[in-house]
Amino acid sequence: MPHPETTADIDAAALASIAERKAALRARLLARRRAIPAEAAEAAARAVRDGLMRATMPPPGAVVAGYWPIRGELDPRPSLHALAARGHVLALPRTPPPGAAPRLTFHVWDGTAGSLAPGPFATRHPPGTAPAVTPDWLLVPLVGFDRTGARLGYGGGYYDRCLRPASGGPAPVAIGLAYACQEVGADDGGLPVAPHDVRLRAIVTERTLIQPVAGDP
Ligand SMILES: Nc1nc2c(c(=O)[nH]1)N(C=O)[C@@H](CNc1ccc(C(=O)N[C@@H](CCC(=O)O)C(=O)O)cc1)CN2
Ligand SMILES: Nc1ncnc2c1ncn2[C@@H]1O[C@H](COP(=O)(O)OP(=O)(O)OP(=O)(O)O)[C@@H](O)[C@H]1O
């Protein structure tokens, strides 16, 4: 039998090609984000807050997790402060040390910078003593996104893992926050999607609210 090819071989090759395309897109999209001037970034963070508050509200009592912005990410703090003012409990992820399993845990956050400790990869996170919570809603940082709700992060697979909880509990509602320039258009072929990738319920940018239709490929 010449060149027997198993399904596993084909899958491995396809996965490698997806990872390669993601890496190339990541470099392009990160460069675009780095070029955004500070005032434009601040205005965008406020516009995202306004868009989020107008269009997609978590149900009363929902615990909402955000992130502490790094590497020029869209600043979610105006959004998080507005949600706290509406009575939502806020949470932030704690990042495990490099080399440990890439599992995020979420802990209550009082919304102040002073209560945070330095974490891996220049993140800041609540101390391990902060009460752990299971967020109902997650505001997710993005390197890139497309109109189907596919997302691209730094490549660690951290968010993909927590958007699909292993425990069988309900998955959190994931809302991506991003600059409009982080969109990968259909003319670029959209974002490559691997089987582990979990789609976003909505993406809020300074220009638009994108709500992919459930069931879209
Ligand atoms: N603001 C924010 N917080 C977050 C994330 C995030 O994407 N953004 N995470 C999302 O997962 C988790 C932390 N995971 C991260 C994984 C990689 C890198 C990163 O910058 N990687 C660099 C290498 C940095 C280094 O090695 O020192 C890179 O990929 O080039 C950052 C955060 C939880 N907290
Ligand atoms: N649920 C999962 N189970 C097993 N492996 C996973 C899972 N999610 C992601 N991975 C692995 O993690 C690696 C990075 O995935 P990917 O490139 O999609 O990360 P990302 O979405 O860019 O990053 P992040 O989720 O940290 O923002 C891949 O090698 C992938 O195989």
From TrEMBL:
GO terms for molecular function: 5-formyltetrahydrofolate cyclo-ligase activity; ATP binding; metal ion binding. It catalyses: (6S)-5-formyl-5,6,7,8-tetrahydrofolate + ATP = (6R)-5,10-methenyltetrahydrofolate + ADP + phosphate. GO terms for biological process: folic acid-containing compound biosynthetic process; tetrahydrofolate interconversion. InterPro entries: FTHF_cligase, FTHF_cligase-like_sf, NagB/RpiA_transferase-like. Its cofactor is Mg(2+). ATP binds at residues 22-26, 151-159. Belongs to the 5-formyltetrahydrofolate cyclo-ligase family. This is 5-formyltetrahydrofolate cyclo-ligase. It comes from Roseospira visakhapatnamensis.
